[in-house]
Amino acid sequence: MTDVSKKQSAELATERTFDYATAPESRDIVQLQDRYGLFIGGEMTDARSGELHPSLNPATEEELAVVSYADAEDVDRAVGAARDAFENVWSKRPPSERAKTLFRIARILQERAREFAVLESLDGGKPIKESRDVDIPLAAAHFFYYAGWADKLEYAFPNARPKPVGVAAQIIPWNFPMLMLAWKIAPALATGNTVVLKPAETTPLSALLFADVLRQAEVPPGVVNIVTGDGRAGAELVKHPGIDKVAFTGSTQVGKEIQRTLAGTNKRLTLELGGKAANIVFDDAPLDQAIEGIVNGIYFNQGHVCCAGSRLLVQESIQEPVIAKLKHRLGRIRVGDPLDKNTDLGAINSREQLDRVRELVAAGVEEGAELYQPPCELPERGYWFAPTVFTGVAQSHRIAREEIFGPVLSVLTFRTPAEAVEKANNTPYGLSAGVWTDKGSRILWMAQRLRAGVVWANTFNRFDPASPFGGYKESGFGREGGRHGLAPYVDISS
Ligand code: NDP
Q1: I want to staple 85 with a disulfide (CB 3.0 to 4.6 A). Which of 31, 65, 222, 412 is the partner?
Q2: In testing the pocket of ligand 1, which one of 123, 254, 404 has its CB within 8 Å of the most ligand atoms?
Q3: What is the CB neighbour count within 10 angstroms for residue 455?
């Protein structure tokens, strides 16, 4: 042990710890129906398929509601409703009226924020402090932001006459259900398109509650249609001939399938896929701040984040203190009831995802990396995984190459900035990266060389509706957010 780490261990040992009393958020604000249909043409309708499945609370395995699974006929009805609304209503609506409608949606989301936050935590397992402070406020912010653009499109696309492309098929994942819904629906509606949205199988409930917001905001029937179901419904939607554009967020594997399906058609496509981001800490970084950034980078939303900082690259000279501080900080992460306002790490979203995390962690141990998990009690029921760090990770290990999508951090080291860039870019993905250093010039030097859609400097996992987000390589293509996020939804060819 070096002198520095000895001193730190002594400091950590004498530090006081705090016990927290539970502070559970009441779930009474959410009124769930026993059974949900599909939201098509402004009405909740029974699925023709007749197929129903429960949506579970991953923290308790309790059944929350029964949800309909759309089949090809249901998808066809939804696309028909969207086409009708596009041709006859929404594309003809003056842009300033579209803006008013989007502003109304944003304000209603703010008014009903607590209801949405509780539901998001119940159905998805994420801590209430994240759904309350991040997911729902950001979803509302996206509607506000794109409401502002609706009647100013000629400034976004100077010397062109932007026209809507038509009916958009939007397929979203389970990690940020409402936020992904807002990322997709807000720019599509602002530019005059109509939508068929397919939420993820394990988190359909907030999108179904959003149907109520659409009615409240007097969005005309058919402008937004919501078809729940599994991957089959998504696949039916992608191949439907009445679709003009597909926007997909999810796994690289399904993204590739969608690309194959669309090859040879003139449907537009944007893909926001996986990632394996490097979070790079230099020896001149403010270490305590960096530790918070590392923790936020990988344990935020249980690591179910496409841009999570899942590979920590630490400069070799500060490896010891960084690991010591990180392990200490991990011991302070509160794991448990997602509705408790003190909880930092909630439940893993589904049994399948938990199995995948376990499989990759077992591979890490098998391949020789050193596993660390702080002592923590996990609830007996539900899907849980302790915050995990692997040290001694080699670039060839699966845990350094594959997206784990769970609360698992792999630590690697580097000596020079050039080596950091080389290692950070040594991945098929390219969604995000983080750089921690005191030197502005080094931040710029690194940002120019990192092949990542977003590079955060001395922070991580920061999002803003005005800022474009998207990937390189197998992380997909196209940008969502910002002025760039309008482009996939407009035709400027004429
Ligand atoms: P998927 O890519 O399967 O799911 C994303 C969305 O696509 C869901 O709505 C899903 O429906 C739908 N879908 C599934 N199959 C098809 C298809 N053939 N055609 C059209 N749509 C389809 O992700 P998984 O839920 O299976 O997660 C697997 C892995 O993907 C994770 O472990 C993680 O690594 C990564 N992932 C990355 C995300 C990101 O944000 N980049 C988000 C989610 C996952 P359904 O839910 O009903 O299956």
Answers
A1: 222
A2: 254
A3: 21
Is residue 225 lining ligand 1, measured as CB closer than 6 Å?
no
Is 456's pLDDT higher than 60?
A: yes
For 15-44, how does the pLDDT look when each residue is reduced to its tens digit (9 = 90+)? 556 677 899 999 999 999 999 999 999 999
The answer on pLDDT for 14 being more than 80 is no
For the CA atoms of 324, 327, 329, 330, the dihedral, rounded to the nearest 10 degrees, stands at 170
Catalytic residue chosen out of the listed positions 120, 272, 402, 403? 272
Nearest to 383 by CA among 335, 359, 417, 348: 348
**φ/ψ of residue 65, rounded to 5:** -170, 170
User: 444: which residues sit within 8 A by CB, 6+ positions away?
Assistant: none
Q: Would the CA dihedral through 234, 238, 240, 243 be positive or negative? A: positive
* 50 CA to centre of own chain: 30
> How many C-beta atoms lie closer than 10 Å to residue 438's C-beta?
12
Q: Annotated catalytic residue: which of 25, 201, 306, 480?
A: 306
Task: Compute the distance between CA of residue 289 and CA of residue 253 in angstroms, rounded to an integer.
Answer: 35
Let me know if 376 is a catalytic residue: no
The finding on whether 173 has its CB within 6 A of some atom of ligand 1 is: yes
CB contact at 8 A, 153 and 95: yes
480 is an active site residue: no
Cα 55 to ligand 1 centre (Å)? 16
In this prediction, residue 286 carries a pLDDT of: 96
Interatomic CA distance for residues 108 and 207, integer angstroms: 14
Question: Can you tell me which atom of ligand 1 is nearest the CA of 258?
Answer: 19
Angstrom distance (rounded) from CA 123 to CA 179: 14
Report helix, strand or coil for 65: strand
Contacts for 145 with CB less than 8 Å, ≥ 6 apart: 186, 465, 466
pLDDT in tens, 136-149: 999 999 999 999 99
Of 163, 164, 167, the closest CA to residue 242 belongs to 167
Q: In whole numbers, what is the pLDDT of the chain averaged over residues?
A: 96
List, as one string, the DSSP characters of 476-490: EES-BSTGGGGGGGE
Q: Which helix (H) or strand (E) holds 72?
A: helix 72-85
Tell me: the pLDDT tens digits for 288-335? 999 999 999 999 999 999 999 999 999 999 999 999 999 999 999 999
Q: What is the pLDDT of residues 370-401, one digit of tens each?
A: 999 999 999 999 999 999 999 999 999 999 99
Q: What are phi and psi of 129, to 5 degrees?
A: -70, -25
Q: For residue 287, what is the enclosing H or E element?
A: helix 287-299
Asked if residue 306 has its Cβ within 6 Å of ligand 1, the reply is: yes
